[in-house]
Specification:
single chain; four-stranded antiparallel β-sheet; rod-shaped; 2 helices
Length: 152
């Protein structure tokens, strides 16, 4: 009769071999899933930062008499006096994020370019040592009217 108290050496080696083959095929999936989670979290955080920045610009734009340059200057952006972020973007570094804001006239598809509305584009990227990793993580756009009170 055969002894049923334990496993033979052959059974242990076969079980370890099967476990090894399964782990070799599944381990890359765990690594890729982890990388996707990290990337997704970075995009979500950057979108939150961009939205918060646009909300602050929007709130400041509602004050009477303000201009786009005064709003960005008050928020700590490097605003060149002549361009006001229309020909070259204005940027600000805060923590691990780099904010870049560009202004331009709003071009309505029906009525054409507007003289009172401003198109504001903000992009947020993470500050990293490797430029291939530090691409823009979020870009949002809003159309604002600076320096006028809004009546709903």
């Amino acid at each position: 009769m055969r002894n049923k108290k334990g496993l033979t050496l052959v059974e242990v080696v076969v079980a370890m071999g099967l476990f090894g083959v399964i782990m070799v095929t599944l381990f890359p999936a765990f690594l890729i899933t982890n990388l996707m989670n990290i990337t997704s979290r970075e995009f979500t955080d950057a979108n939150f930062e961009a939205q918060s920045e646009l909300e602050e610009i929007y709130d400041l734009s509602k004050s009477l008499g303000v201009t786009a340059a005064s709003v960005l200057d008050g928020m700590g952006y490097n605003t060149p006096p002549s361009t006001v972020c229309t020909t070259s973007p204005c940027e600000r570094l805060s923590g691990v994020y780099r904010y870049v804001v560009t202004f331009g006239p709003y071009n309505d598809p029906v009525t054409g370019p507007s003289t009172t509305l401003t198109n504001v584009i903000i992009s947020v990227s993470k500050i990293v040592d490797n430029p291939q990793i530090g691409e823009d993580r979020a870009q949002l756009q809003i159309v604002l009217r600076f320096g006028e009170s809004f009546t709903p």
